[in-house]
Amino acid sequence: MAGRKINPIVKMVLEFGPILVFFLGYMRLKGQHFMIGGTNYDGFILVTAAFIPLMLITTAILWRLTGHLSKMQITTAVMVVIFGGLTVWLNDPAFIKMKPTIIYLLFGGILGIGLLRGKSYLRVVMEEVVPLKHEGWMILTRRVCVFFLGMAVLNEIVWRTMSTETWVTFKTFVLTIAMFAFFMLQGRIFTEYAVEEGTEADAEADEN
């Protein structure tokens, strides 16, 4: 079901604002330690604790404004609660650092299963935004699947081998820019396999 249209800038702020706030908060509190309830927490843990409700609030606002949330948005919010909560509860930053890996593996795996069945699950969530012929969806799905799995591996390498500050910068900017750049580079698919007006039925017939 398609949601109501909202200002693209408002949508971008709601989706990426919490990530930027997380980055700014970490840069402000990095290296600092706070004693709370007899437990010592560093700045990263406190920023993570603040990030969880902020993410839920912006997701709720997005749902309120559009009347719709994508499966990826819902999954991301759930993962933030689970892994962010574990990070704060166990006072261990490893959990929130693993979150992008789990999300990318989950979606990459789902797309991969669909490809093995000869289907494009990506089409289910994107068709109303980008109508393509069946062949175009299959090509795009294969590329997105590989991209997600590659990002999962890259996130693991960064958080396991580099400093927390490097990972926060990587999470905030590199992953976001990589996502935008990836889809920008798929312009040829969107043009070559675009479904022309009045041919939607033909596209469905191609898939079946």
UniProtKB/TrEMBL annotation:
Transmembrane segments: 12-29, 41-62, 74-90, 102-122, 143-162, 168-185
GO cellular component, one term: plasma membrane
Main location: membrane
Intracellular or extracellular location(s): Cell inner membrane
Coiled-coil stretches noted in the UniProt entry, renumbered to this chain: none
Keyword Cell membrane: yes
Keyword set, alphabetical order: Cell inner membrane, Cell membrane, Membrane, Transmembrane, Transmembrane helix
Membrane topology: Multi-pass membrane protein
InterPro entries: YciB
Task performed by this protein: Plays a role in cell envelope biogenesis, maintenance of cell envelope integrity and membrane homeostasis.
Sequence similarity: Belongs to the YciB family.
PANTHER family, A to Z: INNER MEMBRANE-SPANNING PROTEIN YCIB, INTRACELLULAR SEPTATION PROTEIN A-RELATED
HAMAP family: YciB
Name the UniProt record assigns to this protein: Inner membrane-spanning protein YciB
Species for this entry: Allgaiera indica
